[in-house]
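As agreed, record copied across for absentees:
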Amino acid sequence: MRGTQFGDAEAGELVVYCASAAATPHLDELLAMARAAGLRPDVRSSSRAMDGARAVLAIMPDLSPHQIVHLVNLCNGRPLAVLSPSDEEVDRVIALELGIDDVLSWRQSRRELVARLRALLRRAPPAEAAAGSAWRIDWRRGVLTGPTGLTIRLTAQEMQLLRVLQSADGEPVPQSALSEALSASSGADRRSAATLISRFRRKLGDADSPLIGTAYGQGYYLAAKLHQEGDGL
């Protein structure tokens, strides 16, 4: 829609994930009301939108369970609401059971939508806590630094794994594609991706702030922002 801007800066207080503004009626009106109410919506069109956000509003054409699970995994514990044209009770119930914090509808008044967004933000961690969940990587030295300051020396395979996941821009990468990429770069067994990720997760000890997420039935993805130093891809 004319007037809606997609930004590339750091995520704001409330990220609004919208794959297509042109296909979303009343978006500008909702954003204007949210800003007038003192909220700071930051519209993004990429699933990497969740990086650094305190809370996320995902505008979706439907409530597909696969998409819901993917969004919940990407948000990594951040409060998440979805706004959908679906009026089916069963769709809303399934979305809530799968981990969504609130299901909104365009049929609700804009005032109620803003009130629900305020309630969503009240569940969010402080801004400094959200910012502190980032990981940093030094590609030249092969060193990864976790949110707690833990420094981890990476193997060549682990670096290649992170490069492949990062190039996917937050979308899940199938295990077969990961195995093929790892095999091409290092000659490793093509079945090794799942084993490598399992070992890497244990090495990271990242249960409280996971770096690699699993989208069941789809593959693996970067679940946190990876700040770069040195040459990446």
